[in-house]
């Protein structure tokens, strides 16, 4: 690592505001990891419940659609309201939604009842995630945004993986039935409450927005959020191109995720140190988390060294090769290695797109663009999982879907190149945007 990069990283760590923002994110994302793993265990690996591919797709939709349904509202309001207040209130509401979900799981509630509570809990979390991302440029200098974002997003994702691991460990203590799953999931509320406490310690207004360009009527502001985010994203070719690449990666990942869950449940058997079932899924998640962590260490240097263009294309190419070489054989050891590489390259890609939004979009619109980002990001995965569920075999062994995922990575690279060639509006660009 270069001397300048080490100095920049040390300055970020020494900044008390950045540390507080990091801890706020860590608490929230640890709770996210516990909640999602706890709910997944309750629905997918619960001996008291039977789950087919379509039911699994419904579960993914319940966890991911809130990003799509709440995203436009979150964006408009994050660019209007004090983001500190939003973070505190959203975490408290999320804690209540988690508690309600816990009682539902313990009572054996399933289907639309449980999924509705999950929708509420995950929907509120969009205000938290989008708010933290939109607030970051208020905490660090522009030259440090890429590094700070890599630290925050990558370590935050790793903490979410740790939360999932904690849920698996708690499940071993409390049991795999409805009551045990409920007791495990209840710990997620601790993360939300701690995040609310930490967010409250920020001074009013320090997290932005600095400029508010919203209409006086908040209903009109909310209704305008999605369209405004799309307009501002379209003005920056680097942002729209990044969206194309990332959404292709997300669609391919959604297919692989559904196949992996079914393989772990119904096809794979223990192979040496590698485990099937929920412990095997935990190993996949742990390797994915390691990939995310490595991505956080190298992404900023990659972008500075070769630019965003080569970084994004390289990530998609490695993902395609990994999918074909390691995912297609559908062997347990290879699947674990594939999870490390695909999630690592996906995180490099996401960090590249995050930096595009944070550097190439004006602050007064950044929240709406991030909300649009979250919306399309997760709609893409839900659609991919839903379509794949109609074709995947019950045991998960579906080589044709692995081929489709490989092709999607390559199409994402082609789409990225085409979108980059479009001329955007004449907007001021940062040095990073020009280099990317």
From TrEMBL:
Record's bilayer topology term: Multi-pass membrane protein
Claim: Metal-binding is one of the keywords in the record: no
Cellular localisation: Cell membrane
Primary residence: membrane
Segments traversing the membrane: 54-74, 148-174, 180-199, 241-263, 283-303, 315-342, 401-419
The UniProt record lists the keyword Kinase: no
The organism's place on the tree of life at top rank: Bacteria
Protein's name in the database: MFS transporter
Organism this protein belongs to: Amycolatopsis halotolerans
